[in-house]
Amino acid sequence: MILKFGKKLFSALPTLFGVSLFAFLLIRLAPGDPVLTLLGERGADPEVYQQMKQSLGLDKPMYQQFFIYLGDLMQLDLGTSIHSKQSVWSEFISRFPATMELSIMAIIIAIIVGLILGVVAALYKGKFIDTILMSSALVGYSMPIFWWGLVLILIFSSHFGITPVAGRMSALYEVNTVTGFYLIDSWFSDNPVRVFNQALRHMILPAIVLATIPMAAIARMTRSSLLDVLKEDYIRTAKSKGLSSVYVISKHALRNAFMPILTVMGVMFGTLLTGAILTETIFSWPGIGKWILNAVQARDYPVIQGGVVLIALIIFVINSLVDFLYIVVNPRLRK
After folding, report:
1. Which residues 6+ apart lie within 8 Å of 274 measured at CB?
2. Relative to the CA of 163, which of 182, 226, 269, 333 has its CA 20 to 30 Å away?
3. Considering the entire predicted model, what is its pTM?
4. Of 98, 99, 82, residue with least CA distance to 303
5. Which are the contacts of 254, defined by CB distance < 8 A and separation ≥ 6?
């Protein structure tokens, strides 16, 4: 198992190199000058402009900049933000818990609702409820995140006032940061119940928005996998013994149909980190998605490069964990 993981890690190095090269080139091909963005009105002074450009290392040819960046990356140095003057790693670590907490909440919602919808649709194949559920899943998969987020804000925040409009926590409450996960850290505060309630109310809408696409994908895959398994002889044998449909599906069918569903879950959880960019922007969620988007607008090269590489690395780790879960779910793969 360790040898297999080592081979997978080694095979990921070319991918990480390609991602770093892509991130390096793409932001530099985009219009805009980070030096002018940083200097503002002072950028009109050519001498100040050249001094700043030289201090940031942007006066060198592009290939030299890339090799310097690659050398730093091999030493695990992601650079320093042009605007905040803080290390990219420290900024990433301070924002990553917010994105991870939101992504975990979203994938939990997506898995629970997606599995239920997929199982119900498989049990009522070809009937009205199956058509409604799968049509809804298709709409959910195709729905633009920014539009869906704004609709939920208008309904639940602006009209009914059930949830906050944006942010991660009300300014009236203070969270003692221990883990960075507010739903956990709220229990270390002076008023844990109210702080937890506030954290949950702030999280529920962005989590639903972020969960919509994975939920639709899991529902459709669950239905498809279950329909294939339900045709097997051992399922018909179990039904002929008088076992209930719920027992047959939970005990026999769902476990054997879980491999492709698990694949979708792993892929969807990885995409949540990238899909969080729009969601975090709409809800002013202080995570890595909003952080990278702000860096793109400010042409903060080190933040963009480091953030993209770190996200790619996290997605690789998630995919590796999914491969490990394959072995747990299917013992035949242990050979």
Report:
1. 289, 311
2. 269
3. 0.85
4. 82
5. 115, 119, 226
* Cα maximum dimension of the chain: 87
Reference 134, options 146, 125, 145, 144; nearest CA is: 125
- 254, two tokens: 């769902």
Exposed e or buried b per residue across 73-96, where buried means at least 16 C-beta atoms within 10 angstroms of its C-beta: beeeebbbbbbeeebbeebbeebb
CATH superfamily of 90-334: MetI-like (1.10.3720.10)
Q: How confident is the model at residue 276 (pLDDT cuts 50, 70, 90)?
A: confident
Please tell me the predicted confidence (pLDDT) of residue 248: 76
Query: In whole angstroms, how far apart are CA 304 and each of 23, 69, 135, 205, 270?
Result: 7, 12, 38, 27, 18
* SS3 state of residue 87: strand
Answer whether 312's CB lies under 8 Å from 97's CB. no
Q: Where are the domains of the chain?
A: 2-74, 90-334
Note the pLDDT tens digit of each residue in 296-328.
888 888 999 898 888 888 888 887 777 777 666
- Convert the pLDDT of each residue in 71-117 to its tens digit: 888 888 888 898 888 999 999 999 999 999 999 999 999 999 998 99
Taking residue 183's Cβ as centre, other Cβ atoms within 10 Å add up to 15
